[in-house]
Design a protein that fits this description.
Bound molecules: S-adenosylmethionine
Order of helices and strands: HHHEEHEHEHEEHHEHEE
Largest sheet: 7 strands, mixed
Strand order of the largest sheet: 5-4-3-6-7-9-8
Length: 249
């Protein structure tokens, strides 16, 4: 990226970060120039700034996790509007811990667990738990492999959903910096989501509310995967795209 293409509002944020790092409001040129170099090399602004707001909390973000997206904040809102005091919540593919931590914030009496295949993501989610003083149990697990209980009444999953063959179409900011395990949804993009649904069915999960964030272009295929569930519906994001699936069994 050419420095000329960095918009003024980003430059202003980089200047603020440089002032913070240098501990000076006047003598921050060397920090500013190294932050500019990182941005010119396509590093996402959020990683450079280190923290992002998510719904009502602040999260540390770096190359260990996907940067939480606005669609996921809206998923939190949908859950808040539709679910009343769940007893046990499981967030599958927790990344920065954004969904799990917000669930604990909204439902303080619930027992909340967040799992991820990535040890790095779990380490960061634990840091975010401390940062926000929200008690969530985070541990590494390939889907439900290390999850012993089957009595969660709310399960949320924003798993990777980009088809492997489309990864090369992503912006450099995304593909060069965000973790591949957070993006790669395998063949047709539905591999990991369909594995989760099968694992939930095999474990005979009952009385569970499931919310999935999905690729809007895969909504009918996702609904088919859930055809044995009792109640299944598609929900739209703020751009009116089919972005979430709610299912109950
Ligand atoms: C799209 S990111 C979402 C992260 C976070 N939940 C959010 O909404 O920002 C998907 C996450 O799923 C994790 N993941 C990928 N495959 C997984 C698997 N088989 N089991 C558990 N987690 C997995 C990735 O490491 C990544 O953190």
């Amino acid at each position: 990226m050419d420095i000329k293409n960095i918009p003024e509002h980003e430059l202003a944020r980089l200047r603020e970060k440089a002032k913070e790092l240098s501990g000076s409001t006047t003598d921050y040129q060397s920090e500013y120039s190294s932050l500019l170099t990182r941005r010119v090399n396509h590093e996402p602004l959020q990683y450079i700034e280190e923290y992002v707001p998510f719904y009502s909390i602040s999260l540390k973000v770096d190359e260990r996790c996907l940067i939480p997206r606005p669609e996921t904040e809206y998923l939190v809102q949908i859950i808040k509007d539709n679910i009343e005091s769940p007893k046990k919540v499981l967030d599958v593919g927790t990344g920065s811990g954004c969904i799990a931590l917000m669930m604990k914030s909204i439902f303080p009496n619930s027992e909340v667990t967040g799992i991820d295949i990535s040890e790095d993501a779990i380490e960061l989610a634990n840091e975010n738990s401390k940062l926000n003083s929200l008690e969530v149990s985070f541990f590494q697990s390939n889907l439900l492999e290390n999850v012993k209980e089957t009595d969660h009444d709310l399960i949320v999953a924003n798993l990777p959903y980009i088809p492997t063959e489309n990864l090369n179409e992503l912006d450099r900011e995304v593909i060069d910096y965000e973790p591949l395990t957070a993006l790669n949804g395998g063949k047709d993009g539905l591999e990991i989501i369909s594995n989760l649904i099968h694992e939930l069915e095999e474990r005979d999960y009952k009385e569970v509310n499931l919310f999935l964030e999905i690729d809007s272009r895969k909504s009918s295929e996702t609904l088919e995967l859930l055809n044995s569930w009792d109640e299944v519906k598609l929900l739209e994001d703020l751009a009116e795209k089919d972005r979430y699936v709610f299912a109950k069994r």
